[in-house]
Specification:
By secondary structure, the protein is mostly beta strands. The chain has strands spanning 3-7, 10-13, 18-25, 32-39, 46-52, 58-60, 68-73, 78-83, 92-100, 115-116, 120-125.
Length: 126
């Protein structure tokens, strides 16, 4: 059974940093593309960042590029999202998701993904 479990969310002030983790289990993710999405209250779920597990290549949404970094740890089977210079508009539930068997050159859509975690809440106060 495939499981993606996010952790690391919390409440912090604008300008702060936070690292989210997504622990993966139930299958090999060596051929997967992993992504982070987020959903703010009353808004649609939006793409944040993705990483191709095997090559380590990444892509970011313009709103987070230069502030967020996605990475993976093969030994720990974990994907991370390092978030710096956080802003109130970054407040959202952050979801980890995976997809295999597809090549995406840019942003991903929620409909592209096979598996999802349950999310972790990040609240940034001004």
């Amino acid at each position: 059974q495939v499981q993606l479990v996010e952790s690391g969310g919390g409440l912090l002030q604008a300008g702060g940093s936070l690292r989210l983790s997504c622990a993966l289990s139930g299958r090999t993710f060596s051929t997967a593309t992993m992504a982070w999405f987020r959903q703010a209250p009353g808004k649609e779920r939006e793409f944040v960042a993705r990483i191709k597990w095997s090559a380590g290549t990444t892509y970011y949404a313009p709103s987070v590029k230069g502030r967020f970094t996605i990475s993976r740890d093969n030994a720990k089977n974990t994907v991370y999202l390092q978030m710096n210079s956080l802003k109130p508009e970054d407040t959202a539930v952050y979801y980890c998701a995976s997809r295999t068997g597809i090549i995406i050159l840019g942003a991903m859509s929620p409909g592209d993904m096979d598996y999802w975690g349950k999310g972790t809440l990040v609240t940034v106060s001004s």
